[in-house]
Amino acid sequence: MVRVKNIFIIFLLIFFSCPTSYSPPDDAGLPGEKGLMGLVEELFEEEYDELGRRVTVFLLNDNAYWSEYGYTLWTAESGDGEDIFTTREVLLNKIKGDRVAGYGIVICQRIRSGYGQTMLTIMLNTEQSYAIGKVIGGNYMGLKPWTHSAYILQGYGRPNVLKVTYDKDKKEYTLVINGYEIEKFKDENEPVHEGGRNGYIVVISPHDKFPNNPVEVTFVE
């Protein structure tokens, strides 16, 4: 009896000392319902690498952009963008920051009559998940909750190539990550997005601690 008890105690010690995988809630790392959202172009600094590619660097450790409910920051290119979206490919790399907080691209951004600022977003996180959303007047609506994909490289400093194409006849988008088709999706509810400006988006998590632990993300295209 003593021996069985000892074996059981050893089993408990082994079980609780082993690392367990973390499964964030479906909405972790997305713009929160109470979270702030802002267009802050100056935080996304552009430069060019030796190959002539545009590199946009987001680096932040300023408490002015921290909120207990999260703070989502985005930017968009100048001009009106495309009348009809065609295709876009971006290499994304998160170097520092909360591991489940999203970062990614903005497409079809435009001020639409009766709705204000609206756009579609496709985000990744460092935990091999992606999410698709729609923003209307500063409010985020999930078209696809955080979903795991083995085709996304896990961890910090692991560049992922995100590509989105649009079939205007089928009114259907296709999401491709690292060369693998992940899924097709549609935007069927008003306001419907088919064209507009491109941009980038980064979620600041309540778990990001400024100024000691900055958030750093790079975008190359």
Describe this structure in words.
- The protein is mainly beta.
- It has a single domain, classed as Sandwich (Jelly Rolls).
- The protein is built from one helix and 14 strands.
- It has one helix spanning 2-17, and strands at 36-39, 44-48, 54-60, 71-76, 87-96, 103-112, 116-124, 129-136, 139-148, 160-167, 172-177, 180-185, 197-204, 215-220.
- Strand 6 and strand 7 form a beta hairpin.
- The longest helix has 16 residues, at 2-17.
- It is globular and about 50 Å long.
What is this structure's SSE topology?
Elements: H1 2-17, E1 36-39, E2 44-48, E3 54-60, E4 71-76, E5 87-96, E6 103-112, E7 116-124, E8 129-136, E9 139-148, E10 160-167, E11 172-177, E12 180-185, E13 197-204, E14 215-220
Parallel strand pairs: 1-4
Antiparallel strand pairs: 2-3, 3-14, 4-13, 5-10, 5-14, 6-7, 6-13, 7-8, 8-9, 10-11, 11-12
Order of helices and strands: HEEEEEEEEEEEEEE
Structural class: mainly beta
What ranges have pLDDT less than 50 throughout 5 or more consecutive residues?
A: 1-23
Instruction: Name the average pLDDT.
Output: 89
The CATH C-level class name: Mainly Beta
> Helix fraction?
under 10%
Task: Write a compact overview of the structure shown.
By secondary structure, the chain is mainly beta. It contains 1 helix and 14 strands.
Give descriptors for this structure.
221 residues, seven-stranded mixed sheet, seven-stranded antiparallel sheet, Jelly Rolls, single chain, mainly beta, disordered N terminus, 7% helix
